[in-house]
Design a protein that fits this description.
21% strand, 12 strands, 3 domains, 304 residues
Length: 304
């Protein structure tokens, strides 16, 4: 099979995947729609297989086109990072790290100054991400920190670096009904972005399911934890996201915490796993995770 005829054809394919239509892709590339169509046709002729599907005047990618566009986006990202490294100096690297918001604000931010000192050759941009996102749909992210609920795809390298324990937490001002057992009678705060956490906790802890007096759905885990701090009810939270609140007595964990089968992991694309900034950050996280897990065990025992 012949290699791609031109970089412009690949740019047109990637723009169509990202923008969703010929006209939007053309605006993004600064060309007329006809030029995009011409580049896509040339690319199909080069490969000898259809890459797009036409429905009236609408043009979208078929399965082959989507697969190729995903690979092209990753390749463009690698080239962009390489160009940045060349232009900013041979010994400096830039890395965009995606982190779920509760983990970013409550665990990583208190350690950022130490990270910057110890990884001084790497400019790390911490990007808060939805816990449901993956590297496959975030081409501008180089690496990702994920919790036990995340299922990485085969082309992702995932390294465990810290225990992921989770459990119910609420404000000390929330007093359970003495006539009911443990969590019964409380308001359950359900984070929509991780709506399975309660079911996961009942299953993994062996605790019998509870009939709550009320269920309150909240947009995401960050807001659910904030609602728990303010006495609105009880939510399930990773220990790493509430450790400071537990230590300060802002939150209590009457049922304790249980370790998830798989802990927090550092994820990157297989193609990047041996790159120097990825290796350095992975090693740093593993050491920080080891220290955290040791101190967290003592704090969890005292909280329970």
């Amino acid at each position: 099979m012949k290699f791609m005829s031109s970089l412009n054809s690949l740019r047109a394919l990637e723009a169509l995947a990202r923008c969703g239509g010929i006209r939007a892709a053309a605006q993004d590339l600064g060309v007329v729609p006809g030029a995009v169509r011409q580049q896509l046709t040339a690319l199909e002729e080069n490969f000898g297989v259809p890459l797009i599907q036409r429905d009236g005047g609408r043009v979208t990618l078929n399965a082959n086109g989507k697969r190729l566009a995903d690979a092209v986006a990753v390749a463009f990202g690698i080239m962009t990072r390489a160009a940045e490294e060349i232009t900013t100096g041979a010994h400096r690297y830039r890395l965009r790290l995606g982190v779920p918001m509760p983990m970013a604000s409550d665990w990583l931010m208190p350690r950022m100054a130490r990270m910057q000192r110890q990884l001084s050759a790497i400019d790390i941009d911490v990007v808060p991400v939805d816990v449901r996102r993956s590297l496959s749909d975030m081409m501008d992210i180089d690496a990702l920190i994920v919790g036990g609920e995340y299922q990485p795809l085969p082309d992702i390298d995932a390294t465990p670096f810290m225990d992921d324990a989770f459990g119910p937490v609420h404000s000390p001002s929330v007093v359970p009904d003495p006539h009911l057992s443990d969590l019964q009678g409380l308001t359950a705060l359900i984070a929509r972005d991780v709506s399975s956490l309660w079911d996961d906790w009942f299953h993994e802890s062996g605790h019998a399911p509870v009939r709550f007096s009320k269920r309150l759905e909240i947009a995401d885990l960050t807001l659910a934890i904030s609602a728990a701090r303010n006495g609105l009810g009880v939510t399930i939270a990773p220990f790493a996201s509430v450790a400071v609140d537990i230590a300060r007595g802002v939150l209590v964990a009457p049922e304790g915490f249980v370790n998830r089968p798989v802990g927090f992991r550092f994820c990157c694309r297989m193609a990047d796993r041996d790159e120097k900034p990825i290796v350095s950050l992975r090693q740093w996280l593993c050491e920080e995770g080891r220290v955290h897990s040791q101190s967290a065990e003592k704090l969890r025992e005292s909280a329970e």
